[in-house]
Structures are given as C-alpha cells and as structure tokens.
Amino acid sequence: MENKTEKYEKFEIEWVSMHSVGPCGHGIELHYDDGEHRLRVGFIDSYRWYHDRKGHCRVLVLSPDSQEWGELASLLDTILSDLRASVYEVLREIRLNGYIKGRILARANA
After folding, report:
1. Domain that holds residue 57
2. 106 forms bridges with which residues in the sheet?
C-alpha cells in the first residue's frame, strides 16, 4: 500500500506505509489473527476522528516489503484488502474491538 490521502465519506484518510507498525499509542490497533499467526498490520492513529466523526484520520500500514510479513507474505494482497475494508468499517460503524473483516482484529488503545 502506497502513501496517499483519500476521501471516504466525511473523512480524509492518510495512509502511511511503515516497515513496522508499533509500538502504538492512543488509537486502534489492527491485527491479522488467524489463530496461528498474529501480526499488527495497521494502526488508526488517535481518536480525533472518533470525537469529530469527520476530518483527518491517519492510518499506519505495514509495508508490503516489510520483513515482518514472514510466512504471511503469500496472503499480503488479501490481508491489505481486508485491512482497508476494516478501516472503512471502523470509521463508519465506530467498531473499536473485535473481528472486523476477514481475519482483521481491532483492539482499542486508550
């Protein structure tokens, strides 16, 4: 996933590709979790989007060329697609915890 900014409903999402996502502060951690593997693949930074219900939202995403993918590299396209859909759902439905899309698990950090 490349660095870019996009409009989604009332939000302006800034996607930031990182070689490692973490440690994370206040926001929503997004993990790929299939019961055998657990990998932090994204992070919705802060809760400003939550309080405002609109505006800028910064999302850190594990870079496709990160060594952290390891055995999961073959699932990269599916995981990143599910991650993007999960971010949209978190913003739209205010889902802060639990499985969102596919094997993407959200965990709120406060």
Report:
1. 4-109
2. 30, 98
Structure tokens at 90: 């978190």
Spell out the SS3 assignment of the chain: CCCEEEEECCEEEEEEEECCCCCCCCEEEEEEECCCCEEEEEEEECCHHHHHCCEEEEEEEECCCCHHHHHHHHHHHHHHHHHHHHHHHHHHHCCCCEECCCCEEEEEEC
CA distance 60 to 55: 17
Query: What's the number of domains the chain is made of?
Result: 1
Residue 35, both tokens: 């019961």
Asked if residue 96 lies in contact with residue 90, where contact means CB atoms within 8 angstroms, the answer is: yes
Query: What are the pLDDT tens digits along the chain (110 aa)?
Result: 678 999 999 999 999 999 999 878 899 999 999 999 999 999 999 999 999 999 999 999 999 999 999 999 999 999 999 999 999 999 999 989 999 999 999 999 98
